[in-house]
Amino acid sequence: MSADPSAITVRPARTSDVRGMQGLIEPYVHRRILLGKELVNLFEAVQEFVVAERDGELVGCGALHVLWEDLGEVRTIAAAQGSLGRGVGHAMLVALEDRARRLGLTRLFCLTFETAFFSRHGYAEVAEQVVEPEVFAELLRSPDGGVAEFLDLAHVKPNTLGNTRMLKRL
Questions:
Q1: Nearest to 9 by CA among 91, 77, 89
Q2: Exposed, middle or buried: residue 99 (CB in 10 Å: 0-12, 13-18, 19+)?
Q3: Judging by DSSP bridges, how do beta strands 71-79 and 107-112 pair with one another?
Q4: What separation in angstroms does the CA of 64 have from each of 2, 85, 87, 119?
Q5: What is the pLDDT of residue 128?
Q6: Pick from 142, 70, 71, 37: which is nearest to 61 by CA?
Q7: What are the per-10-residue average pLDDT scores of the chain (170 residues)?
Q8: CA nearest 124: which of 116, 134, 132?
């Protein structure tokens, strides 16, 4: 397998990629790095995902979820075990940030154990609430578990213990 980052192609995910995406995500779920995603949830969110391919093989996936008019979340970045350290995560994050800019977002949030990776890409740790109280109140209405994680709500704390909240201004 090539280690050349330019050999990586990142493109929007298709429904035919979903089972492969789940296969990429599962090892991280077992290591308690990512939350598990039911197959149906991946199909429902396929339009949020990009996938990375190298030599025609699926080697990574990641998602961008819009939270508010200026704010999005980078989610579920997973690289194939044999592709770690070979530019896959970087290529996907760049593609997701480009997508965020095209959508008009000016800030990106992530909840991660991979603080060094995100720090290298301009993300900084945040402890305080990053939205105004009226936006916070609106976001409370979302049924999305990731939004609850972003809001740092008590009922999601067991799933997020040890994760770091990070933010980047685009």
A1: 91
A2: middle
A3: parallel
A4: 27, 21, 19, 18
A5: 72
A6: 37
A7: 71 98 95 88 97 96 95 95 92 98 96 94 87 80 75 60 86
A8: 116
Give the amino acid at 39: L
Cα→Cα distances 135→5, 9, 154, Å = 39, 36, 18
- Cα 87 to the chain's mean position, in Å? 16
Token pair belonging to 151: 């809001």
Nearest to 19 by CA among 77, 61, 54: 61
Specify which residues 50 forms β-bridges with: 12, 62
Two tokens, residue 83: 């592709």
Q: Which two tokens stand for residue 2?
A: 């090539």
- The span from the CA of 152 to the CA of 149, in Å, is 5
The pLDDT of residue 129: 75
Q: What are the beta bridge partners of residue 75? A: 63
